[in-house]
Amino acid sequence: MPDAPRPPAGLPGGFSEPEPQDGGAIRRRESDPSRRDLSYPPLPEALRVGVYDNHTHLEIADGEEGLDWREQLDRASSVGIRGVVQVGTDVPTSRWSAEIAAIEPRMLAAVAVHPNETPELKARGGLDDALAVIDELAGRPRVRAVGETGLDYYRTAEDGRAAQIEAFEGHIAIAKRHGLALQIHDRDAHEDVVDTLLRVGAPERTVFHCFSGDAGLARLATSHGWYLSFAGTVTFKNAENLREALEVAPRDRILVETDAPYLAPVPVRGRPNAPYLIPHTLRAMAAVLGTDPSMLAAQIASNTEAVYGRWSDEPPLPSEPPRGADAGRFGVDA
Ligand SMILES: [Zn+2]
After folding, report:
1. CATH code for position 103
2. What are the Cα distances from residue 210, in Å, to 32, 59, 234, 266?
3. How confident is the model at residue 217 (pLDDT cuts 50, 70, 90)?
């Protein structure tokens, strides 16, 4: 996500479980309602060949009324979205992601502490404990990635960078230890992200989530075998650099994501984003590449399974899914 929301007051260290809010989500997106259309956009025309949303935050409610995560997945299924990777950004949301993925066949999980959270955690002396919890969660069923982790020099001043790099290296080590994919958040930090990956050695499957570089970075990253995941930003009018990156990337290194509830694609830019809106982004990408959307969807679905494995590889636990207000308190192994 572009901007990590602060945990609600009263959650020092992020270790106590947050209370569920709208629709069972455990966070709410901060935004100024007077500046955005807060209604969920209509369903786009369904894809003929399905794809996955490999980066979403269903734990963050947005809109006039947040959608329940099952409603989100039902809408996504109805337009050809085969599954999602649900991404945590701190300990509570990573735990929530792992717990829902364990019981939901359409969801896999990614777990991590977001780089915007790590300088403060480090200053409080809580970074090692948080990484130990992420390490434990990384070993759980249907957790297939460590992320989002990386570097964010847009929101973090110079004095927070050492903590971000330390946490990034810690996450890379966890991904390698568990044989998981790595999902990288890179904002205004391309050079140091690449340097860190090359210095410590990137995990076998490494994804630049919400790719924000240009054709040069796309060539460099894919020359190392890393994947580029394109979000709704690739549809934005001023994002010519992203479309150039898409054009030069080898087709077998391309993924698609929402980063919902952020970054809704054109023509619904600014409104709450959701996995069911992927068809807009996928069709725009196909237009850039001059290819058929179904051909591109088949390629991206195959790439996504190469990174995270199949959604059906580990069957979900035969548990009654948490409902509404109980979602945030549900514990699979409790
Ligand atoms: Zn994200």
Report:
1. 3.20.20.140
2. 23, 18, 9, 15
3. very high
Instruction: Determine, yes or no, domain membership for 286.
Output: yes
CA of 30 to the centre of ligand 1 (A): 15
Phi, psi of 182, deg, nearest 5: -115, 130
Instruction: Look at residue 26 and tell me if it is in a domain.
Output: no
Full DSSP string of 8-53: PTT-GGG-SPPPP-GGG-SEE----GGGS--SPPPPPPPPSS-EEE
State the CB neighbour count (10 A cutoff) for residue 34.
6
Q: Domain range spanning residue 219?
A: 49-313
The token pair at 256 is 């698609």
Q: How big is the CA angle at 219 (ends 216 and 222), to the nearest 5 degrees?
A: 145
Question: What pTM was computed for the model?
Answer: 0.90
Residue 263 Cα to ligand 1 midpoint, Å, equals 10
Q: Each residue of 143-202: pLDDT tens digit?
A: 999 999 999 999 888 889 999 999 999 999 999 999 999 999 999 999 999 999 999 999
Q: Give the CA radius of gyration of the chain.
A: 18
Centre of ligand 1 to C-alpha 56, Å, is: 6
Q: Could you tell me which residues are beta bridge partners of residue 228?
A: 208, 254
Q: Could you tell me if residue 329 is inside a domain?
A: no
User: How far, in Å, is the centroid of ligand 1 from the Cα of 87?
Assistant: 7
DSSP symbol at 141: T
Burial (CB count within 10 angstroms: exposed 0-12, middle 13-18, buried 19+), residue 168: buried
Q: What's the pLDDT at 269? A: 96
Flag whether pLDDT at 22 surpasses 70.
no
Contact 100, 93 (CB under 8 A): no
- The total domain count for the chain is 1
Instruction: Answer whether 78's CB lies under 8 Å from 49's CB.
Output: no
In a domain, 326, yes or no: no
Q: How far is the CA of 137 from the centre of ligand 1 (A)?
A: 18
Strands (E), the chain: 27-28, 51-56, 60-61, 81-87, 107-111, 143-152, 181-187, 206-208, 227-230, 254-256
Query: Ligand 1 centroid vs 24 CA: distance in angstroms?
Result: 19
